[in-house]
UniProtKB/TrEMBL annotation, chain A:
PANTHER family: GPI TRANSAMIDASE COMPONENT PIG-T, GPI TRANSAMIDASE COMPONENT PIG-T-RELATED. InterPro entries: PIG-T. GO terms for biological process: attachment of GPI anchor to protein. GO terms for cellular component: GPI-anchor transamidase complex. The keyword Membrane applies. It comes from the Eukaryota. This is Gpi16 subunit GPI transamidase component. Pfam families: Gpi16. It comes from Polyporus arcularius HHB13444. Keywords: Membrane, Signal, Transmembrane, Transmembrane helix. Residues 1-22 form the signal peptide. The chain crosses the membrane at residues 507-528.
From TrEMBL, chain B:
InterPro entries: Gaa1. Keywords: Membrane, Transmembrane, Transmembrane helix. One of its GO terms (cellular component) is GPI-anchor transamidase complex. It comes from the Eukaryota. It comes from Polyporus arcularius HHB13444. This is Gaa1-domain-containing protein.
Length: 554, 641
């Protein structure tokens, strides 16, 4: 009797909680698929959980007890970290591969720098400073996502606030907000990062769109990256968006070298059932432009603006979206030298030079538009590469055009502790190529600072280019005025060789140098303590008998 | 008991006395030092002789079967031959199709228009879906302009960050005949077919860069120099519009014949640089185990393994010697070493791979030794696939194995410690000779002085005493500097090729002797100039030989042969004709190459201008002046000594 009562009460409580949860939390999932012109397929998964009417924690309140955290859909593990370190906005991305802007266009998620990138906006506070909480945060995230984010220490941390503007709104705390940004280009992304990522989803990878996240296929993709984006929106709440982005190559998967794809052929899975707690669950397929005829199955729920939308519904059968080009026998690659690049600006960055002490950093920026483009240029460089700023020059067609670089700001690096931060505004003349060159110095590392794989070299973080104004003077259109924020373009990362000792024979080196020091010390000591006298030496030694007599006398 | 203890205690003292002698220990030490120096001075001719003899004999003994050890893989990450290869007959068929196209282009004489080939290659790469571009280049040389067009493609590997790259290259001209016009059509076809095949896999951790370079060495030099942004004043090359990361390893494919029987490995780079031995060992292991065909050092087929091969040993040798296995082994090894030394001493690259070493890229050429069979694209593709997988395994640059070695056979090598001493010994002998001359110059035997001076040392033989005399150091050094300056002039004259070689030879061999007539010779109380000059000359030459030996062993060995004994034996003679004859002989040794091997000289100049090989300036500025100094020593009339 009594047990029955308890059971009933519990049931009522659960239902109530679920209702309350449903009212204050929302979960939406979304998959965007874009066939690309080089036969590849871009897929972006986005899972967003919204905590309605929530506010980020005020860092001034860190010493007080926090409010209780009861979430039904919102990821608790992440929520706890956000409250613990009073984070207002957070962006974490873990990527592998090199994004090809020219052939793939802008990515759906802008943060595509190779390796790990973490940037957060946090309110300043007195007892627990931003830097202290930044350290705690990156260690907590390292634990949560099984990534080496703990290495994003002060040697890699900068605050390039112009390039990394908050995507949500910043609440009005006692003190202003500050940015912390760090990249770790050598971080490898793999399935150990995906597993904790999936655990944060309400349906895990069991149902809904997330069931397509098959690690075997995801980590075989030409490019793949996962992201965690937390932002606060005034009057809406705190939103956590977990994203996975990949560029797949159906031509590689097909034996006939065709670009036909289906969810099953790409992910080796189809959507068997919908995620029951998702408010909306959609698959959007961007329909390819151009003349070659294609078919898409099954019939989409809606088509508008060249985008076919499928609603993943609980009632439906297994959903397997497929696209075919029946007229094509094999996929014909477009000629890369003739196809126009898909972004306004193409950028290449290289480290030229052959010796271990000096090199030249070159940045080649091509403006693909017939109008002038103004772009921000950001370089966050660990002290492993030190700039000679006076050699920073711009050329267009071999003509020096230093006037095209303006508003240059530079925070020099502090060896062994702080990275350099270089920001500039570049003016790109219409349809032309700007060459930026700068001499750099490769410093000498302490022997304890070398990595375990010392002969590999050091990965350097990507530079970021933000084209923000198009056109000249009065006619210029600023990207932001279109209601669209300026988009970041990341350059590929680089590898730099620093002078590296031969670590395979440390003992030989130690023994050799010890011997040399001992020899030098010995001779110097000898010279310093010796008394020089003139000795008369007769040609023959003293007779043995004499010597013996002398000996006896002693 | 106490007596026994006392005796025991006395033992060290007695020993000390036995060793050091009695009396003042300081005086004893000085006496001992004098005795030692005396011994060394008296034994100097013997010491010199022994050092020279051991050094030269050691050089001769390097190919003997008793030296050398088996090669092994040092870098654990490489794991050569541990993968299945999937290169199939489909891929071979595709290579055949490409080859047909290339042959058609050749038959239509498309080589005259350099862009046709490069554009065809770029088209093939673009069809596969690999971005490709051309690069036009031109080198200004004394002989005129060398120009061409490279084609290259960058396969951006899936999932890779593009910070590291492997280069797979084939030059349009084969290394067979050192780029005399033999086309490397099958090598080019292999690379193009391989590119399409490799694109199917997502396992590449590094970008793959395919380079089809025009010409033999010039194309790759233009490409690699531009890739690294290294300035070369006489090179006009288009900038590269596709880029990748740091290149760690590279393999160059050379397949000039119709089929092949053996795979030869060429590894010598510019200025005597060698790639890491792990790369060679991995490829030769893969060739033997995955490819199933024998490996050669260079293209030297061992006559003991293969019938119908020309004998290495001269035919006039008696059969008893020719059939001796040790002698045969010696001959086989000697052939490999001589070929290797020939490349290394001249600083020449034995293939296109050699141009990459200057940028710290470990590279080799795999050379399909032309034969009537049985291997073709199928074996070569498998070997290349497996080798690239091995290079792909690298987590760091190749650093574990040897950079200094002598590859005496496909599976046998010598460590630097086992061959370096030969040259060092010759260098030491030269140094001892030089120091001996220096002492000779400083002291002279004088008639017994009147009265006795305690300080004067009585000489060993007669009553004559050794007296010190001034040495004309400044004059000797000035003459040496002048000859080296003359060497600089010679280098400019030779490299600009304004004057006929014979005239240059006559002029530059006569000039030092004539100029010497204007030099006021030191008066008798000071040492004769010849002795001091010879002392400096020998010491400097010894330093050159010793230092070169750790940079470029083969060059040092050549210097040891050409300078070791000749410089030591240089001496004046009382009769004028003899002096003139000696001078002429040394002049020929110094500058004879001008007349005797004009083709070699032309090549060396081209190598300097285009590839930056140091041989030509080294010979002109270091070697020739050193030998000319010895020639001057012969002309100087020895004064009273």
């Amino acid at each position: 009797m009594r047990w029955q009562y308890c059971w009933k009460t519990a049931l009522v409580l659960v239902v109530q909680l679920a209702v309350v949860g449903a009212a204050s939390e929302q979960f939406d999932e979304d998959l965007t698929i874009r066939p690309l012109r080089d036969g590849k397929l871009s897929a972006r998964f986005s899972f967003s959980s919204l905590l309605k009417d929530a506010r980020p924690r005020d860092p001034q309140q860190l010493s007080n007890d926090d409010e209780a955290q009861h979430y039904a859909l919102f990821p608790l593990a992440l929520g706890q970290i956000l409250r613990e370190y009073a984070v207002t906005e957070l962006h974490l991305s873990l990527n592998a591969g090199k994004w090809n802007y020219d052939a793939w266009g802008y990515p759906d998620e802008p943060g595509i720098g190779t390796g790990a990138e973490l940037w957060v906006w946090m309110g300043e506070s007195m007892p627990a400073s931003v830097d202290l909480r930044w350290q705690g945060l990156r260690n907590a995230l390292a634990g949560l996502f099984c990534a080496s984010l703990g290495h994003l220490d002060e040697q890699r941390t900068t605050a390039p606030a112009l390039t990394f503007q908050p995507e949500g709104s910043l609440p009005n705390f006692t003190y202003p907000h500050q940015l912390r940004h760090a990249t770790l280009p050598s971080e490898h992304v793999c399935t150990e990062n995906l597993t904790p990522f999936l655990k944060l989803l309400p349906c895990k990878s069991l149902s809904g769109i997330a069931s397509l996240l098959n690690p075997h296929r995801l980590f075989d993709a030409d490019w793949h990256g996962l992201g965690v984006h937390v932002r606060y929106q005034e009057a809406v709440g705190v939103e956590v968006r977990l994203t996975f982005q990949g560029v797949f190559d159906p031509v590689r998967y097909s034996n006939e070298r065709r670009r036909d794809w289906s969810l099953h052929s790409v992910f080796d899975r189809s959507i068997e059932r919908a995620c029951p707690v998702a408010r909306s669950s959609k698959i959007r397929v961007e329909l390819p432009p151009g003349s070659s005829p294609y078919s898409i199955t099954p019939d989409p729920s809606a088509i508008n603006d060249g985008v076919a939308t499928y609603v993943v519904d609980a009632s439906e059968e297994a959903l397997d979206v497929a696209m075919r080009w029946p007229m094509e026998d094999t996929f014909e690659y477009p000629n890369t030298s003739e196809a126009p690049p898909l972004t306004e600006v193409s950028v290449r960055r290289n480290l030229k030079g052959t010796n271990q002490a000096e090199a030249q950093l070159t940045l080649v920026v091509t403006n693909n538009l017939p109008v002038q483009v103004t772009a921000g240029y950001l370089e966050t460089m660990p002290w492993l590469l030190q700039f000679h700023l006076h050699t920073f020059h711009a050329h267009v067609n071999g003509v020096a055009r230093d006037d095209l670089v303006s508003i240059l700001s530079y925070t020099p690096p502090v060896p062994h502790s702080r990275p350099a931060l270089l920001q500039a505004v570049l003016t790109l003349p219409p349809s032309s190529t700007l060459h930026l060159t700068m001499d750099v110095v490769k410093p000498f590392l302490r022997y304890t600072e070398h990595q375990p794989d010392a002969q590999r070299g050091w990965d350097l973080p990507p530079a970021v280019l933000v084209p923000f104004a198009f056109g000249k003077g009065q006619n210029s259109t600023v990207a932001a005025s279109h209601g669209r924020r300026p988009r970041r373009i990341y350059t590929p990362i680089m590898l730099v060789d620093l002078a590296t000792p031969d670590f395979s024979m440390p003992y030989n080196v130690i023994i050799m140098s010890c011997t040399l020091i001992a020899l030098i010390f010995g001779s110097v000591f000898n010279l310093l303590t010796r008394k020089f006298v003139v000795v008369r030496v007769s040609s023959a030694p003293a007779a043995p008998a004499e010597a013996a007599a002398e000996q006896r006398q002693r | 008991m106490p007596l026994a203890l006392q005796t025991l205690r006395a033992i060290p003292a007695r020993l000390r006395q036995r060793l050091r002698g009695g009396g003042d220990p300081n005086a004893a030490r000085i006496r001992r030092r004098q005795a030692l120096a005396n011994k060394a001075w008296q034994g100097l001719p013997l010491i010199k002789l022994v050092l020279f003899a051991v050094g030269y004999l050691w050089l001769l003994a390097i190919p003997s079967a008793q030296f050398g050890q088996r090669t092994y893989i040092d870098e654990n990450a490489l794991q050569p031959g541990q993968v299945h290869t999937y290169w199939s007959w489909n891929d071979v068929h595709r290579a055949d199709r490409v080859l047909e196209d290339l042959e058609r282009l050749r038959d239509h004489n498309a080589t005259s228009d350099e862009y046709v080939i490069a554009n065809y290659v770029v088209g093939e790469f673009e069809k596969i879906g690999i971005p490709a571009r051309t690069q036009h280049y031109a080198f200004d040389t004394v002989d005129g302009v060398t120009e061409g067009t490279n084609a290259y493609a960058v396969l951006q590997s899936p999932r890779a960050s593009g910070t590291e790259a492997i280069v797979i290259s084939a030059s349009w001209l084969s290394r067979a005949g050192d780029g005399d016009g033999t086309l490397n059509l099958r090598g080019v076809a292999t690379v193009i077919s391989l590119a399409q095949y490799l694109k199917k896999y997502s396992l590449w951790a590094k970008d793959l860069v395919f380079v089809i370079s025009d010409g033999y060495l010039d194309g790759m030099q233009a490409w690699i120099t531009t890739y690294h942004g290294a300035a070369q004043p006489n090179l006009h090359a288009e900038p590269l519009t596709l880029s990748s990361g740091v290149i760690w390893t590279a393999v160059n494919v050379d397949y000039p014949g119709h089929s092949f029987s053996h795979l030869g490995i060429f590894f010598e780079g510019l200025n005597g640089r060698l790639p890491n031995q792990d790369l060679l060992n991995s490829v030769s292991l893969i060739t033997r185990h995955t490819g199933g065909l024998p490996v050669l050092v260079h293209d030297h087929i061992d006559p003991r393994d293969t019938p119908n091969q020309p004998e290495i040993l001269p035919s006039w040798l008696p059969d008893v010697i020719k059939s001796n296995p040790d002698v045969q082994e010696y001959a086989v090894r000697a052939r490999n070493i001589v070929r290797h030394m020939n490349y290394q001493a001249r600083g020449a690259a034995s293939g296109v791979h050699g141009l990459l070493h200057q940028f710290r890229i470990d590279a080799i050429t795999v050379f399909a030794v032309p034969a009537t069979g049985p291997h073709g694209f199928h074996s070569l593709g498998k070997i290349l696939e497996s080798s690239l997988r091995t290079m792909n395994n690298l987590l760091e640059r190749l650093h574990a194995s040897f950079f200094f070695f002598l590859l005496v056979g496909p599976g046998t090598f010598m460590k630097i410690g086992s061959y370096l001493p030969s040259v060092i010994l010759v260098g030491t002998a030269m140094l001892f000779s030089g120091l001996g001359e220096w002492v000779n110059a400083g002291w002279t035997l004088a008639a017994p002085p009147i009265g006795s001076d305690e300080k004067k040392e009585p000489s060993q033989a007669s009553g004559a005493t050794w007296v010190q005399r001034p040495r004309p150091v400044l004059l000797a050094v000035s003459i040496m500097a002048a000859t080296h300056l003359l060497g600089v002039v010679l280098f400019y004259v030779v490299s600009s090729r304004l004057v006929n070689a014979t005239v240059v030879f006559m002029l530059f061999s006569a000039l030092p002797a004539l100029a010497l007539q204007l030099v006021p010779l030191p008066a008798p109380p000071s040492a004769p100039l010849a002795t001091v000059l010879k002392a400096f000359n020998l010491c400097f030459a010894s330093a050159v030989v010793s230092i070169t030996s750790v940079l470029n062993f083969s060059l040092a060995a050549a210097l040891a042969v050409f300078m070791g004994l000749p410089l030591t034996l240089a001496s004046s003679s009382p009769s004028l004709p003899k002096r003139i004859a000696k001078y002429a002989l040394y002049s020929v040794l110094a500058l004879g190459w001008l007349v005797l091997c004009p083709e070699e000289t032309r090549k060396a100049i081209w190598n300097w201008e285009v590839l930056g090989v140091w041989l030509a300036p080294f010979i002109c500025i270091v070697y020739a002046p050193l030998v000319l100094q010895a020639a001057l020593v012969c002309t100087l009339h020895a004064q009273s000594s």
